[in-house]
Amino acid sequence: MTDFIIKQDIGGNMIKRRGKSVSFDAMVKFFMQAYHIPTKHDVEKLLKGMERIEGQIKALTNQISSGSRKKRVIREKSGGNATDRVLEVIRRQKDGIDIAGIHAQTGFDDKKLRNIIFRLNKLEKIKRKGRGIYIGA
Questions:
Q1: 32 and 42 in contact (C-beta within 8 Å)?
Q2: Which of 31, 4, 33 is nearest to 19 (CA)?
Q3: Biggest CA pair distance of the chain
Q4: Which domains does the chain have, with CATH numbers?
Q5: pLDDT digits (tens, 9 = 90+) for 44-63
Q6: Three-state secondary structure call for residue 99
Q7: Closest CA to 90 of 58, 119, 52
Q8: What percent of the chain has pLDDT over 90?
Q9: pTM exceeds cut of 0.85
Q10: Which string of b and e fits 86-125 if b means at least 16 CB within 10 Å?
Q11: What DSSP state is assigned to residue 127?
Q12: Which positions ≥6 away from 93 have C-beta within 8 Å?
């Protein structure tokens, strides 16, 4: 059986070319690849992979529930927020403490300390003993 492919050239004239006949299987394979339609082999491969993953999950859950539990780690408190740390430093000093002393013990920069001290003074948790010296209220 001879098939002809008919095309037009630039001038509009019809050209006959001899082409291959396309089998039905080749056409189906082409469409399956072009439209990403999975084959039976692809589905079986996916099922094997899923079964392997399910087995790993089951083994992991058995291992976890078999008693190999880790003890709970209790973390030490980090000292609370910055305001609480500054308030604690001020309360420890009965005679009062200045900004330099608070800075030495907490490591906070000057702007942060000024804001914290302003807030603590506004909340009446500290008092100003003198210029730059603070005591707990």
A1: no
A2: 4
A3: 112
A4: 3-65 (no CATH), 82-136 (1.10.10)
A5: 999 999 999 999 999 988 88
A6: helix
A7: 119
A8: 38
A9: no
A10: bbebbeebeebbeeeebbebbebeeeebeebbeebeeeee
A11: E
A12: 101, 135
pLDDT at residue 77 is higher than 80? no
Cα–Cα distance, 58 to 56 (Å, whole number): 5
Task: Give the separation between CA 52 and CA 50, rounded to whole angstroms.
Answer: 5
Whose tokens are 């000024």? That residue is 114
Sign of the CA dihedral with 90 first, then 92, 93, and 94 last:
positive
Mean confidence (pLDDT) of the chain: 83
**102, 108, 134, 130: which is closest to 120 by C-alpha?**
134
Mean pLDDT of 15-43: 85
Q: At what angle do helices 82-92 and 110-122 cross, to 10 degrees?
A: 80
- How many whole angstroms separate alpha carbon 70 and alpha carbon 30? 55
Which tokens belong to 24? Answer: 């039905």
Structure tokens at 74: 């209790």
Which residues are CB-contacts of 28 (< 8 A; sequence separation ≥ 6)? none
What does the block give as tokens for 7? 């095309």
